[in-house]
Each structure stands twice: as C-alpha cells, then as structure tokens.
Design goal:
two-stranded antiparallel ribbon; three-stranded antiparallel sheet; elongated; 7 strands; 266 residues
Length: 266
C-alpha cells in the first residue's frame, strides 16, 4: 500500500478546502513534514495545515508507516493522553495509541546512550532526594526480588520473575576488557565520593553487620597453655623434627594433640 500517496491526498484536500479556525468546526494544526525529523521546516507556514481530529489521528498513523522511528511512534501515542470531548477515542483507536507508545518505549530503551543518560540522571537525583517507601511497598519489592532471576539472550540481560522469550537463565559472561572497564569505573566512583557519601556507606555497612546473624560458639572449655608447657612443646617439636625429618609445624600440631586438644597458647 502506498501510504505516502494516501497521506498527501488528505493534506491536499485539507489545503484546498480553505479551512479557518472559528468557522464553527474543530480543527487541529498539523505539520506536514514532522518537526522532529525536519527541524528546518518548523517556521515555514507552507508546512502547516488544519485537519479535523479524525484526519489528524489518521495522518499520524500513516506517518508511522512512512517514517518508522521512535519520534513518530511517540507522536501517535500522545493522542491517547488528551482528555477532550472533541477528541474522544474509540477502543480501537486507543489500542493503536497504546501499542505505538509501547513500540516507542522499546525503541528508546534499545539505545545504549539513552539508558546511560537515564542512569546518570537517576544517580544525580538520588544524591539530592531521599526516596521513602512504605512498609507494604518494601514487602512487595522484597518478595518480587526473591522470586526474580537473571536471564540473557547472548546480547542483553534482564532481571525478572518470568523468563522472556528467547532468553536463558544466567548472566552474560564479561570479557577481560569489560571486567577491566568495570573495575576502573568502580575505582573512579569510589575516588570521587564526598565525605557525606563515605559516611552514609559506613553507616549502611555497620547496620548490615549488626543485622547479620552471629556465629554460635561451640561449648568447649578451652584452657590456655602456660608458658612452661608451651616451651616444653616447642623443645619436643624440635627434637621430633630432627629425628623424623618432618616439618616443625607438623611436629607442633602432633604434640599439641597428644598433650591436650582443648588447650591453646596465645
């Protein structure tokens, strides 16, 4: 199907109709060449036309076919965000808008530069603002995290509850260069920390250590060696090492077990 021809037919019909705002009909301003793709044509009056709400929606549908890109998908998805009586959408039109929004979202996140920019923005925002979650939200997050696993498709990895199509369990194996790059980035981040960030990290780690369960000590009555006992053990160890040819440390351990396995000398 020739989408460009259909698009130009609608534009030509609107241009030749001599439409004006205030004549009793509802019109919307439309840029024939999209602003996001053709910025040089933004200020030119010949690039604008008045369309009805239905024509405007249909033209943006055609633009996603003529210029398949994130910008066109995003422009179409905006239609479902307006709550106007004159632009009421049917369920079919709403579905088209939501699908366009989903495609635009996938295209945006597939770009590595966008992901890196979002990560930096979040990092800067977290420095100045503390996010407080309710107890219910914390519980839901912990339950979801406990059920989630890492999956990868050989190029990309994701952390989710269900395994996406084409993915296998496990994380991507990093090459030596990627590991080195990761280590250098960590070192830079640690070197550029402020005193407040260092203090916060120290407090976080101290709290984690307090919450960590302590190891239970075995109920064994341990008595220390006296200085005389320890000197006798050392002498016997030297003699046995000289006679048998074994190492001094081995002889020490053997004699300590013979004397008393529950004693120690510090």
């Amino acid at each position: 199907m020739n989408y460009r021809h259909i698009y130009m037919c609608i534009i030509t019909h609107a241009k030749t109709s001599n439409r004006k705002r205030g004549d009793g009909n509802y019109y919307e301003k439309h840029h024939i060449l999209p602003r996001s793709l053709f910025p040089n044509w933004i200020t030119k009056e010949s690039n604008t036309v008045l369309l009805t709400a239905r024509e405007h929606f249909f033209c943006h549908q055609l633009l996603t076919k003529i210029y398949p890109s994130f910008e066109m998908e995003k422009a179409l998805s905006i239609f479902c965000k307006f709550k106007q009586d004159k632009r009421a959408l049917t369920s079919r039109q709403y579905e088209i808008c939501r699908k366009a929004a989903h495609r635009a979202n996938l295209l945006w996140w597939s770009d590595d530069s966008n992901r890196e920019r979002m990560r930096k923005n979040l990092h800067e925002a977290l420095k100045t603002r503390k996010i407080v979650f309710s107890e219910k939200t914390k519980q839901q997050m912990s339950e979801r995290s406990s059920k989630s696993r890492w999956y990868n498709n050989g190029e990309r990895e994701t952390f989710s509850v269900k395994c996406p199509d084409g993915f296998i369990p496990g994380r991507l194996k990093l090459t030596k260069e990627q590991k080195q790059h990761k280590l250098e980035a960590l070192r830079k981040n640690r070197a550029n920390r402020t005193e407040e960030e260092k203090q916060l990290e120290f407090e976080r780690r101290s709290l984690a250590n307090k919450k960590r369960p302590k190891k239970q000590k075995k109920n064994i009555n341990i008595r220390k060696y006296t200085l005389d006992e320890w000197n006798n053990i050392q002498k016997k160890a030297k003699l046995t090492a000289f006679e048998t040819g074994k190492s001094y440390s081995e002889c020490i351990n053997l004699i300590k077990k013979e004397v008393c396995p529950c004693r120690k000398y510090v």
